[in-house]
């Protein structure tokens, strides 16, 4: 029997779990995939929004602005990559300059600080590669970028260190009220908990609707992205948004915290909540739209493309809090953009409510600091050599594009909530995330995973069950077939 | 700081041949830095035969070909550091490298020879839409898994791209027990050698689908199939020609890119066509004393030519270190009319040997044409060619005497022309 079961190990669930781990509560996170950060949290813009988009008074506005303010401190506490690079919303039409002003006023009503209107020249002075067609821009110095994997994994690790259990490959099938709280039936067995937190992303509506008469409906809204080589990373220093134009909703151009350039997303409502496929139309659309902001984008430097699903609730706001007719069942539902930015605030807000409901007290021994995977590239030569002497694995480069050492990969596997798959290693260390897209490091990483996990050779997976990377040994099938 | 006359970056066929030639030219201090566990580079996973026909008049496997150079390097007592990654090279030729035993260390090099090879173009560069399941590998990654690690990356295979590695892997996967259903090629001609199409596809009944590409990737966990479609003259898929092929593996052989991240740090001038450095007759880059050879310079089809080219780089690096170097006129060398690039792209006749091999690729398939060499406006040679294609590297020979006989010469041009 748990005090709290958090359903969903995305950025929202992990943030709630970490905040719950401040309290004397027995908490578990149930995640259907083999790792945290495997759904919407892994495929988004990685933007820490300033907070001028959301309607004043909405949960989105409140959580966004609060999350934005929490992020710098959290990045220091949990040691993940974050940069306050500022953002610009571009306006290409003089007639729309009034809307830019309205956006500024909305932001100010939400409590966003430092917003400033720029004319085209001023915008281009900040970002020299911007299009000459830019007539004006809204500058938000508090806008930032974060590594979504880094943020989610940091919170998960810290939650685990503070006692939260992570139950992977555990998919919730049914939730029932029982006297003590809830009985959650999963593919791996039944779990009882006094309180349940629903942070199930695009499936949060289904879970809520199992226990509450207040029915919600979530649409999966797909966003496709292109990631460009680090050589293209200098095309923009700030995050460049577009005002919606007659041509539709715009796309963004942003550097990532690791120095790549990212374009995206599209916005397509998708009936299948598992459909994270990219389409040629989608990729072409976003490349041509991105070129409106920055005309000289080196499109041939795309190293990968991907898609994620936003959990769009019909009411267009975050649904946060206890379901009225289901005591002890808490929703974090409809968490679409600015969900990543809001995650720290949502965690704090919901964990507080759950703790109050359960009458939980704060722990005295909560350890809020977490040290990330050591990045030897940040060390001096002397420090690096001391490290290599004590652990030679740090002297061995596995991923040559991102210069990731064996030491980092082993650390990623061995630490709490460690990597169990190729993608798990990639999200923690960036091995395989560079310009060759894992061409060279895949065999080495497989070898390290085999050794560290101690599983059968062929069990190494890309991510979830069924994604095994190897199908057999050489000539095995010939022998079996007697050929 | 430790110093060394010549530091060779890469211990594959190019690096080894360059180091051997430099030693034979009389350089005592040479160091080869290799990132893998053994010397030989990509040859170690090329276990098929067909290597060395030009160099040794024998048909060797990749590892056997490499072995001959490794043994020669051992005989010449050329020091090599394995599992050593070069992290940085400065324009002043300070090489920073790292390995498990020595940690991070720096060497002041007299000359540097770049021989880092190339890498494969990944899926992302093609923007193939669909899911991102397991089972999509670049052909070279699959080759390493099968030939070195002993693992099969799949059973039912489709290959996109008919570059040589793709063709070789079609045969290898078949021999190891997998079924290769098709090799799809975007272009109306193959990017690989003719002999590989015959020996790797035709002999095994594997269809080569020219003017086809993958338009959709299916499967959420492991690949379940790909949709192929015909492409038109604009290389765009033709609607209505889609064909679903069930498979669990897609191998990509869609191009090789010289690995010039380090060259970029030195700031050498790059050639936009080859993605390798621009070099002169001595295979010296725009950075003085920094030479390049092998696939880091331009992607080759045959290792024999890599060895020849690298030997020239090694010899010239030795001349540079020993001060046997002349400053002279720079004559521009360029391709025209179907010749996409030339290596080298500039010539100083005073520094060249009696004969210089100029290597290049053509941009299309040409039948019954002639290859011509012009010195300024004057044609000095023509050679009939029955067939030329982008998949096979071509060459012409320049004679030093021809160049020296024409003082004031400004430009050398290599061109494909209608046969006379």
Automatic annotation (TrEMBL), chain A:
Coiled-coil blocks: none
Gene3D superfamilies (UniProt xref): BFD-like [2Fe-2S]-binding domain, D-Amino Acid Oxidase, subunit A, domain 2, FAD/NAD(P)-binding domain
Taxonomic placement: Bacteria, Bacillati, Bacillota, Clostridia, Lachnospirales
BFD-like [2Fe-2S]-binding domain location: 397-450
Protein name, entry field: Glycerol-3-phosphate dehydrogenase
Domain FAD dependent oxidoreductase: 3-351
Highest taxon of source: Bacteria
TrEMBL record, chain B:
Keywords in alphabetical order: Oxidoreductase
UniProt GO molecular function: oxidoreductase activity
Domain FAD/NAD(P)-binding: 5-302
Species of the source: Cuneatibacter caecimuris
Protein name: Thioredoxin reductase
Regions annotated as coiled coil: none
Acyltransferase keyword on record: no
Alphabetized Gene3D superfamilies for the sequence: FAD/NAD(P)-binding domain (3.50.50.60)
Organism phylogeny: Bacteria, Bacillati, Bacillota, Clostridia, Lachnospirales
Domain of life: Bacteria
The keyword Oxidoreductase is annotated on this UniProt entry: yes
A Pfam family it matches: Pyr_redox_2
């Amino acid at each position: 029997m748990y005090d709290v079961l958090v359903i969903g190990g995305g950025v929202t669930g992990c943030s709630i779990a970490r905040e719950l781990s401040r309290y004397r509560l027995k908490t578990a996170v149930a995640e259907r995939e083999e790792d945290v950060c495997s759904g919407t949290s892994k495929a988004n813009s990685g933007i820490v929004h300033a907070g001028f988009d959301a309607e004043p008074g909405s949960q989105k506005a409140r959580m966004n602005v609060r999350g934005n303010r929490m992020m710098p401190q959290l990045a220091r506490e949990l040691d993940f990559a974050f940069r306050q690079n500022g953002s610009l919303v571009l306006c290409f039409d003089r007639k729309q300059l009034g809307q830019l002003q309205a956006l500024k006023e909305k932001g100010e009503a939400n409590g966003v600080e430092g917003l400033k209107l720029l004319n085209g020249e001023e915008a281009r002075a900040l970002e020299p590669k911007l299009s000459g067609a830019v007539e004006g821009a809204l500058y938000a110095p508090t806008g930032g970028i974060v590594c979504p994997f880094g943020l989610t994994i940091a919170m998960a690790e810290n939650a685990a260190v503070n006692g939260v259990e992570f139950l992977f490959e555990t998919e919730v099938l049914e939730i029932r009220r029982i006297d003590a709280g809830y009985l959650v039936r999963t593919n791996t067995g039944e779990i009882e908990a006094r309180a349940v937190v629903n942070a199930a992303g695009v499936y949060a509506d289904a879970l809520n609707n199992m226990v509450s008469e207040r029915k919600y409906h979530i649409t999966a809204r797909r966003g496709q992205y292109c990631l460009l080589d680090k050589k293209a990373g200098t095309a923009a220093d700030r995050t460049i948004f577009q005002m919606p134009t007659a041509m539709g909703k715009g796309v963004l151009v942003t550097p990532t915290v690791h120095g790549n350039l990212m374009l995206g997303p599209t916005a397509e409502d998708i009936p299948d909540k598992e459909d994270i496929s990219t389409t040629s139309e989608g990729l072409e659309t976003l490349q041509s739209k991105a070129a409106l902001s920055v005309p000289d984008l080196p499109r041939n430097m795309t190293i990968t493309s991907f898609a994620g699903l936003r959990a769009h609730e019909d009411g267009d706001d975050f649904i946060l809090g206890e379901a009225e007719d289901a005591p002890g069942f808490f929703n974090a539902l409809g968490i679409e953009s600015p969900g990543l930015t809001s995650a720290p605030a949502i965690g704090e807000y919901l964990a507080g409510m759950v703790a109050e409901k359960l009458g939980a007290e704060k722990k005295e021994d909560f350890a809020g600091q977490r040290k990330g995977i050591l990045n030897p590239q940040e060390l001096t030569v002397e420090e690096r050599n001391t490290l290599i002497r004590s652990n030679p694995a740090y002297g061995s480069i596995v991923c040559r594009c991102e210069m990731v050492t064996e030491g980092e990969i082993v650390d990623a596997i061995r630490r709490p909530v460690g990597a169990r798959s190729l993608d798990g290693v990639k999200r923690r260390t960036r091995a395989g995330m560079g310009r060759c897209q894992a061409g060279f490091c895949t065999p080495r990483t497989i070898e390290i995973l085999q050794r560290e996990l101690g599983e059968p050779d062929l069990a190494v997976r890309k991510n979830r069950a069924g994604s095994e990377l190897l199908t057999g040994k050489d000539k095995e099938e010939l022998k079996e077939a007697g050929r | 700081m430790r110093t060394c006359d010549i530091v060779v970056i890469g211990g594959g066929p190019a690096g080894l041949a360059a180091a051997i030639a430099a030693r034979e030219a009389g350089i005592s201090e040479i160091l080869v830095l290799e990132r893998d566990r053994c010397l030989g580079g990509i040859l170690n996973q090329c276990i098929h035969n067909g290597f060395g026909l030009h160099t040794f008049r024998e048909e060797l496997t990749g590892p056997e070909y490499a072995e001959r150079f490794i043994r020669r390097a051992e005989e010449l007592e050329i020091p090599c550091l394995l599992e050593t990654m070069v992290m940085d090279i400065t324009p002043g030729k300070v090489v920073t490298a790292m390995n498990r035993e020595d940690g991070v260390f720096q060497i002041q090099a007299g000359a540097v020879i770049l021989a880092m090879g190339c890498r494969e173009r990944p899926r992302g560069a093609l923007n193939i839409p669909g899911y991102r399941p397991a089972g999509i590998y670049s052909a070279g990654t699959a080759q390493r898994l099968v030939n070195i690690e002993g693992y099969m990356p799949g059973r039912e295979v489709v290959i996109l791209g008919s570059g040589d590695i793709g063709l070789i892997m079609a045969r290898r996967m078949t021999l190891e027990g997998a079924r290769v259903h098709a090799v799809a090629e975007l272009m109306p001609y193959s990017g690989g050698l003719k002999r590989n199409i015959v020996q790797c596809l035709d002999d095994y009944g594997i269809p080569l689908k020219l003017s086809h590409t993958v338009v959709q990737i299916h499967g959420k966990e492991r690949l379940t199939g790909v949709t192929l479609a015909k492409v038109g003259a604009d290389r765009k898929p033709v609607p209505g020609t889609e064909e679903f092929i069930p498979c669990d593996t897609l191998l990509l052989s869609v191009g090789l890119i010289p690995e010039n991240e380090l060259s970029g740090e030195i700031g050498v001038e790059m050639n936009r066509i080859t993605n390798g450095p621009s070099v002169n007759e001595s295979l010296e880059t725009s950075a003085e004393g920094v030479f390049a050879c092998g696939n880091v310079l331009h992607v080759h089809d045959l290792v024999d030519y890599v060895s020849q080219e690298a030997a020239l780089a090694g010899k010239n690096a030795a001349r540079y270190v020993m001060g046997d170097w002349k400053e002279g006129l720079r004559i521009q060398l360029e391709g025209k009319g179907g010749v996409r690039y030339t290596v080298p792209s500039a010539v100083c006749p005073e520094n060249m040997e009696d004969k210089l091999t100029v290597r290049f690729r053509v941009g299309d398939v040409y039948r019954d044409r002639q290859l011509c060499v012009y010195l300024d406006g004057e044609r000095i040679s023509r050679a009939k060619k029955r067939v030329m294609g982008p998949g096979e590297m071509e060459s012409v020979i320049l004679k030093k005497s021809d160049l020296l006989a024409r003082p004031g010469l400004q430009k050398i041009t290599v061109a494909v022309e209608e046969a006379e």
